[in-house]
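Hello forum,

I keep getting stuck at the same step: I have a sequence, I want structure tokens, and every attempt I make locally crashes halfway through. Rather than fight my setup again tonight, could one of you with a working pipeline run this one for me? It's a single chain of 325 residues.
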Amino acid sequence: MDSIWGWALIPLAVLGGTVWLAGIVLAWLQRQAILDLPVERSSHIRPVPRGGGLALVPLLLFAWLMLAVDGRAPAGTGAIVGIAAVVALVSWRDDLAHLAFGWRLLVHLAAAALGVLALPAGALVFQGLLTPALDRAAAALLWVWFINLYNFMDGIDGITCTETIVIALGIVGVSLLATVGSDGAPQLALAAAAGAAGFLRWNWPPAKIFLGDVGSVPLGFIMGWLLLALAAKGLWAPAAILPLYYLADATLTLLMRIARGRRFWQAHREHFYQRALAPDGDHAAVLRLVIGGNVALLALALFAVHWPWIALALAALATASLLAQ
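Reply #2:
Ran it on my machine without issues. Output:
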């Protein structure tokens, strides 16, 4: 029964609960006219309710808290849940009335600075290349970027849900293959995959509801923590490979916008996946392409448990070919 609790009952409850609650949240958002209206930089052509993360994030954080209280989650999970809840509240405020970029960044910096304290003591994300203090500082800055890129990349139907599912399942597979899952991290990841799958029922193209910042930003925070914790266990290569598509698209796009003198913090339609969408606006076709690439990265992350450098080289090639589509 103990194993069924974390491996089956909790994920199934999150999956079913998210499917059910998303329908309720969708109706409420429509009544309140909380809509993402199409503008020039949008990838959609009709108003879509924004803020669906209200259906996913609270359920997922509650599931994580239950696992933590039951002693089936890594140390520090309770703190991560609390920080993620605050991040979600601020992000919901941003969905309702856009906050200035500086305020959002300050919240993300504070969240990451507190979050790195929840990583295992003495475990180094950068494998001893930096002093412990610098390791934690660099991890926090990387985490802030990951939070924001998770939000930046949530620009077409279903993309962040599918990204979360693949990364989460990859964390489960890598942890089990490397026999480092005894701390309960795989169960947390599985719950995240279940929640994203439940929301995908409503977010698959054509999306009936969008995650909004209240969904994508907290998801970036908690998935970033799971990946940093995986790296801190010595599995740095799988932790880098699993989100490589999101990292590459967002980072290269940011650098190109900076080079062109653009206001990089503003919304735009210059991501690689948005360019792929441009000819016919077929969200589903682009999403299937991204899913295929991410599944390849998941397989390479498993391969990286024993052959990290070969897997990294192949992952770089796979990501480059995906961005070139």
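Residues 2-31 form the longest helix (30 residues). If your local run keeps crashing, start a new thread with the error log.
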